[in-house]
TrEMBL record, chain A:
Residues 31-68 form the F-box domain. Pfam families: F-box. It comes from Eleusine coracana subsp. coracana. This is F-box domain-containing protein. The gene is gb06921.
Automatic annotation (TrEMBL), chain B:
This is SKP1-like protein. The lineage of its organism: Eukaryota, Viridiplantae, Streptophyta, Embryophyta, Tracheophyta. Part of a SCF (SKP1-cullin-F-box) protein ligase complex. Pathway: Protein modification; protein ubiquitination. Residues 16-75 form the SKP1 component POZ domain. Involved in ubiquitination and subsequent proteasomal degradation of target proteins. Together with CUL1, RBX1 and a F-box protein, it forms a SCF E3 ubiquitin ligase complex. The functional specificity of this complex depends on the type of F-box protein. In the SCF complex, it serves as an adapter that links the F-box protein to CUL1. Belongs to the SKP1 family. InterPro entries: SKP1 (IPR016897), SKP1-like (IPR001232), SKP1-like_dim_sf (IPR036296), SKP1/BTB/POZ_sf (IPR011333), Skp1_comp_dimer (IPR016072), Skp1_comp_POZ (IPR016073).
Length: 178, 174
């Protein structure tokens, strides 16, 4: 597979001279300075790409203490919101069914966020026995979803956690009644 | 060296200190400006750098030191005011304009500057240059970052790791 380097061709001015490359290597060999530079990448997607530069960069970019600082400096951005209809559909073939929550991306997102929105999967596949998905909450980039399912002993609600960006989906145990 | 317009709040006569670069060039600068460096601040508070003595800086050459001091002199008045309280929007905009132009320099100077800022513990300058370097690699693929920074071409193993990373984190590569 070709690495995707064609999309952002290096500008001529970007190529460092041999002397500059030598000083760059000297600077970037310093762990403190490398972290200070990585810390100032504005978007998580920039950090993820930088993490692939080398194993050493990956180690710094994925260090929990570093990530805490990164999140402090660049608080998570809202990619969009879910509009949850309040009542069942009143007519037509899907009458009495609740429509699914609809994802609405934030208008005027910065280019880096817009790219993530394009790539993410914010509309969840309905299993044949799920007849309605309702968004409960959003924490740490994961959605808590209530899926209303049809079971042989009647309808029940299956909570699950989903990550729209990584497209992971996990069923959660049902919380006990208080 | 030009004196800062204002901001030395303690007394009228600004105290001067002498800094000596690795290539033995002497720079006379206001103590308030040099004190932006946490490292120098301690020496200056102890009374060092005055008179004929001078503070030797064996890790910083004269070209880099003059650039560092240009930053310190510009930022000293704001730092003396504790950063924000008395600063007007115009002052802040002026500093921002200065900062933007200040880092618009050759890459090798940029790296020497960040190293000096790190050694001298000048937080604002280190942060400013780190931001500039980060801006240079923002929006680029790992391969382009390596080229921008003049890294050698990746080995086949490194290339394979990069490709695997791209597959796993496809959302960051849109």
């Amino acid at each position: 597979m070709n690495f995707r380097s064609i999309r952002f061709p290096c500008r001529a001015g970007d190529a460092p001279t041999q002397a500059a490359a030598k000083v760059a290597a000297w600077v970037l060999d310093d762990d403190d300075l490398l972290r200070e530079i990585l810390l100032r990448l504005d978007f998580p997607s920039c950090l993820v790409r930088a993490a692939a530069v080398s194993k050493r960069w990956l180690r710094h970019a994925s260090d929990p203490a570093f990530l805490r600082r990164f999140r402090c400096l660049h608080p998570p951005r809202l990619l969009g919101l879910y509009v949850c209809p309040m009542g069942p559909i009143s007519s037509g073939p899907h009458q009495d069914l609740f429509p699914d929550s609809i994802f609405v991306p934030m208008p005027q997102s910065p280019a880096e966020s817009a790219a993530v929105i394009r790539r993410g999967s914010f509309h969840f596949h309905l299993e044949h026995d799920i007849f309605h998905n309702s968004m409960w909450d959003c924490r740490n980039g994961r959605l808590i979803i209530d899926s209303y399912m049809q079971g042989y002993r009647g309808n029940f609600v299956q909570p699950s956690a989903s990550c729209a960006i990584h497209q992971h989906h996990h069923c959660l145990p049902r919380p006990r009644d208080p | 060296m030009a004196a800062p317009e204002s901001g030395d709040g303690n007394n009228g006569a600004a105290r001067m200190v002498t800094l000596i670069s690795s290539d033995n060039t002497r720079f006379e600068v206001e103590a308030a400006a040099a004190s932006l460096s946490q490292t120098l601040q301690l020496t200056i508070l102890d009374g060092g750098g005055g008179g004929g003595d001078g503070i030797p800086l064996p890790n910083v050459d004269s070209a880099t030191l003059s650039k560092v001091l240009e930053y310190c002199i510009k930022h000293a008045p704001a730092a003396a005011n504790g950063g924000a309280p008395n600063a007007t929007a115009v002052d802040r905009a002026e500093l921002e304009r200065f900062d933007n132009e200040f880092v618009n320099i050759d890459q090798s100077v940029l790296y020497s500057l960040i190293m000096a800022a790190h050694n001298l513990e000048i937080e604002g300058l280190q942060s400013l240059v780190a931001k500039k370097v980060a801006d240079m690699i923002k929006g680029k693929s790992p391969m382009e970052i390596r080229r921008t920074l003049g890294f050698p071409d990746p080995t086949p193993e490194e290339q394979a790791e990069m490709n695997a990373h791209m597959l796993e984190y496809g959302w960051a590569y849109e």
